[in-house]
Specification:
This protein is an alpha+beta fold. Helices cover 27% and strands 31% of the residues. The strands form 7 sheets. The protein has a 7-stranded antiparallel sheet. It has a 5-stranded mixed sheet with strand order 9-15-14-11-12, with no helix packed on it. The chain has a 5-stranded antiparallel sheet with strand order 17-16-18-25-21, with no helix packed on it. Strand 5 and strand 6 form a beta hairpin. Helix 2 runs antiparallel to helix 8. The two termini are 38 Å apart.
Length: 518
């Protein structure tokens, strides 16, 4: 803008000088020398004006070429894409849906049928709507929701997570096919450049309806002859005491297992004064009534028994009907994950200062079994984002494939911890690849990955990435406004070019008139 203003000011000054010289030619022949100096200056500027005009015309041509055929970004696809590289039309989407069992299973998990896709309409959504959530293949934050469909794992997070620069406030626009699920009328969208689903809700996992049990025929009872029973001789009443039964609930479960016991006793000629419970784990309880509660804290099979004591002082013996086995089980294995990173080159926590080209970063993965039983665990680490800016130099026995490190299966005892390290080296120079189209966290000058918790390492930006970062903070003007600016600059350049030619012609005519030609 300042350059244009200087050119405009210079043009005005030259025009005024020209008028002054012309007005003095008839009165002062010495003005002819000034006219010759003026002519030489115009010839010197003619080359500059010509190149400016040519550059302006080429700039206009380039602007319209970019609008007519915009370039495709080199990193238009991302490992986070559900459909790698996205799709270009509804027919393309439907063809990919028909050809992929994985895609059908995922879309069906979200209640999106082929008919729903066919009925969807072309539109645009903005991430300012905080209710919109997107589904991708990679986990970016510890708060992402894990969704398992068959053998595949996906991650769901707010669509606004991808916003950067000025889009944090204004939101990002996405070209989509959008519609409503026929099964419940809920909104869904499918993003063009990645095939990822956008939804406000996740349908619950369908629960299969169990088949009713097949009734078994009840055999008819076989009639038995009635024996001739002699009439008993009445006996005198004798006091009796008996334990009839013992029941418990629940009989199995994870420890600590709280179990309720119910006993049944009978007495005649006396009363039951005590119910004596033996829980089988060296714990007993004597109750005035038939109910008792006990908590088992150790794993095993414990035989609980009941005896009753009568008012005449006698106690019953243990019988099978008054015995029950309780089996507390260990808490199944349960694992927690944690992660940290150290910049070995700078000898600091890697998350506290940007990493420089060539720095060595050592990641430390910790897996702890907080359950009550030993369990096998396979450590899997997704490093797709890390490998954009770094190379693995030591995987400590892990197998690296398609941006994923997998270590051999190991058994972790209760309370035990499995620690694994791997080391990467920051590329030198740091790649200047622009931020991804479908994944705004791709090539964003950060090493992001999650293992229990998220670890984010920033990088020292090269100059081109600094320019890119500054550009993202500028308002999005769009093609019409930028075209207007280009045409305005082109118009000013052409004006100077033709004005220069006009002045040269006028000077030539004046010199010819006063000096007899050049």
């Amino acid at each position: 803008m300042n350059h244009t203003w200087l050119n405009w000011s210079k043009c005005c000054i030259i025009t005024l000088m020209f008028k002054k010289i012309v007005s003095q030619l008839s009165l002062s022949p010495s003005a002819v020398s000034q006219l010759m100096f003026y002519s030489r200056r115009l010839k010197q500027e003619r080359v500059t004006r010509t190149f400016s005009a040519i550059a302006a015309v080429l700039l206009v041509g380039l602007q319209f070429a970019v609008i007519a055929a915009p370039p495709t970004a080199a990193n238009a696809a991302s490992p986070n894409d559900i459909i790698l590289g996205g799709f270009v039309s509804k027919n393309d989407l439907l063809n990919r849906y028909d050809a992929s069992a994985e895609l059908q299973a995922l879309y069906n998990r979200f209640g999106i049928s082929r008919a729903d896709i066919s009925a969807s309409t072309h539109g645009s959504i903005n991430s300012k709507d905080k209710t919109l959530k997107s589904i991708g293949r990679l986990q970016h934050t510890a708060s992402d929701t894990e969704i398992n469909v068959g053998a595949h794992t996906y991650w769901m997070r707010s669509l606004s997570v991808w916003d950067t620069g000025s889009n944090v406030v204004n939101g990002s626009n996405y070209e989509v096919f959008e519609g409503k699920r026929a099964k419940d009328g809920s909104y869904f969208a499918i993003i063009f450049h990645c095939g990822n689903i956008v939804s406000r809700t996740v349908p619950p996992v369908p629960t299969p309806t169990p088949k009713p049990p097949t009734p078994k025929p009840t055999p008819a009872p076989t009639p038995k002859p009635t024996p001739n029973v002699p009439t008993p001789t009445p006996k005198p009443n004798v006091p009796t005491l008996a334990c009839i039964s013992l029941s418990a609930s629940p009989l199995t479960g994870e420890r600590p297992l709280k179990t309720n016991f119910t006993g049944v006793g009978a007495a005649s000629g006396q009363t039951i004064t005590d119910y004596i419970f033996d829980f089988g784990d060296s714990s007993t309880a004597t109750q005035p009534g038939p109910l008792a509660t006990h908590t088992y804290t150790t794993v095993g099979n414990f035989t609980a028994t009941l005896k009753v004591k009568g008012s005449l002082g006698k106690t019953t013996a243990v019988i099978p009907a008054c015995s029950v086995t309780v089996s507390p089980a260990a808490t199944p294995p349960s694992f927690t994950k944690a992660k940290s990173a150290i910049n070995l080159t700078q000898n600091i926590d890697a998350t506290t200062k940007p990493a420089a080209p060539g720095d060595l970063i050592k990641y430390h993965l910790t897996t702890k079994n907080i359950g009550g039983a030993a369990g096998e665990y396979v450590v899997v680490e997704h490093v797709e984002d890390v490998l954009e800016y770094a190379d693995i130099v030591d995987s400590t026995g892990g197998n690296v494939s398609n941006g994923v490190i997998t270590w051999p299966n190991q058994t972790i005892q209760p309370g035990g911890t499995l620690a694994i390290n791997f080391t990467v080296k920051i590329k030198s120079p740091i790649p200047a690849t622009p931020v991804g189209i479908s994944d705004k966290n791709s090539f964003d000058l950060r090493l992001d990955n999650v293992y229990g918790n998220a670890v984010q390492i920033t990088l020292t930006p090269p100059f081109s990435k600094q320019v890119e970062g500054a550009a993202t903070s500028l308002p999005a003007t769009g093609a019409p406004f930028s075209t207007f600016i280009v045409l305005a600059v082109c118009g000013v350049s052409l004006f100077f070019f033709f004005r220069n030619r006009q002045l040269l012609t006028e000077v030539k005519l004046l010199r010819g008139e006063f000096q007899g030609g050049l």
